[in-house]
């Protein structure tokens, strides 16, 4: 729990309540697999919390396909300055998310039932996050219309991150992405570090097919909760 204390700071008790709810109701309702309970902190909570290193202060965030609240709920806990919308199409999951928001007393979070492609004209946000939602080739088409020009998609990805980025090149160009890169966050806190695909939205920009290698993100100073 030493790393969790470092990551969450004064918000650790809130994160602990969330972890307990995931391990209980989350498993019971099928949002978290039973085998994940023993590795909730490293594989899920800390893995998501370190994404906050690259999100600017006071950003408006939409978490697509929020599911059990990963990473949206975690980001709301560790970064109370963020204004976060949890976007989820399934009723049973939005019910779970609403219970989380009420139980954890997160005034910076709203839950919205819907699909990204159906609500695109309602949003123009700074950041869109997504974890285990869809291949990047599909995710880009859902996420970029939600972003303001210069806004960023931060997609949590695994070993195939570079391959997915290459496969999505045509879609990225079609949606006018400005730049793309691979990032690794959480160095020294999660093993392996969390891999992010960052796509910056533009208007009519062309994405080159040659991508930069993953680089380490500088850690930002956390705001106290």
UniProtKB/TrEMBL annotation:
Its EC number is 2.1.1.-. S-adenosyl-L-methionine binds at residues 65, 70, 116-117, 131. The keyword S-adenosyl-L-methionine applies. It is found in: Cytoplasm. The keyword Cytoplasm applies. GO terms for cellular component: cytosol. PANTHER family: S-ADENOSYL-L-METHIONINE-DEPENDENT METHYLTRANSFERASES SUPERFAMILY PROTEIN. This is Ribosomal RNA small subunit methyltransferase G. It comes from Actinomadura hallensis. The lineage of its organism: Bacteria, Bacillati, Actinomycetota, Actinomycetes, Streptosporangiales. The gene is rsmG.
């Amino acid at each position: 729990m030493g790393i969790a204390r470092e990551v969450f700071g004064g918000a650790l008790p809130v994160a602990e309540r969330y972890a307990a709810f995931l391990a209980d109701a989350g498993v019971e309702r099928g949002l978290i697999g039973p085998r994940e309970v023993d590795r909730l902190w490293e594989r899920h909570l800390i893995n998501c919390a370190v994404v906050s290193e690259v999100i600017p202060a006071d950003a408006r965030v939409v978490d697509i396909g929020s599911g059990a609240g990963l990473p949206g709920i975690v980001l709301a806990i560790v970064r109370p300055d963020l204004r976060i919308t949890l976007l989820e199409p399934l009723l049973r999951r939005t019910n779970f998310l609403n219970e989380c928001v009420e139980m954890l007393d997160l005034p910076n979070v709203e839950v919205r039932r819907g699909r990204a492609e159906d609500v695109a004209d309602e949003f123009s946000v700074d950041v869109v996050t997504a974890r285990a939602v869809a291949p990047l080739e599909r995710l880009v088409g859902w996420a970029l219309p939600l972003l303001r020009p210069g806004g960023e998609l931060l997609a949590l990805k695994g070993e195939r991150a570079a391959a997915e980025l290459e496969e999505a090149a045509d879609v990225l160009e079609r949606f006018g992405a400005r730049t793309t890169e691979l990032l690794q966050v959480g160095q020294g806190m999660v093993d392996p570090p969390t891999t992010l695909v960052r796509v910056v939205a533009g208007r009519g920009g062309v994405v080159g097919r040659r991508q930069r290698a993953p680089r380490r993100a500088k850690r930002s100073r956390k705001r106290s909760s």
